[in-house]
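Give me structure tokens for this 228-residue protein.
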Amino acid sequence: MKLFHGKETIVQQAMPAMPSICTPLGTVEFLLSVSNQSYLATDCAKLNSGGWLYKYDYDSWDCELAICRVDVELACDQEVEECWGAVFRIQPKSGHQIDECSFTASWKEGYNWTSCGSDTGEGLEAIEYKNQTYQLHIGTQDGTLLMMRRNQGDRIPKSYGEGIDVEAQGYILSSGKGISVPMSQMESDEICEIHVVIAWKKYVEEDVSTWLAVDQFSKDILKGEGLS
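Here you go.
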């Protein structure tokens, strides 16, 4: 690992599978775009508790994606069936910069949810998807929280939010296709970290368990695999 710290088990295979999470409503794939070009992982490794680490090793930048099962702590009357998080970290190599990039959680064709809608909260950008049997949320940190992280030097580029009112305009792209987090220019001494969380359970009217479950910090996603 270059950008995460922890233990992994190398998996030998010719081509890494597309990073994804299979849910009862379909498969969500995790996509990386740099300078408007999509990139595939170059290597992958199995993590100790069932997760995966994907590595993107390219000429001018490195990226890693950790997919981990999340141990969700909710009130006694709330629960989810499963919760998974995906944490991207990307860094330009020495002497290089990244003009722009984006991190996306996107539904693969063949999904079976029948309705969706925005379901945001303080610090959270989320979408709810459901059918008659299951409910599911996909969530990530909203632009306001990313701005706070930038100001704290917490793995958000110094250029983030320049020229726009993030709180008023929003900076996270969400739709029936999924969630995408665009990121601005970063220099070789900067690391950018973005995460997405997915949680699901059998459908219960007015149940907010999955919404609460996707409101996570990266460190809590990674601790299930002993990563930092």
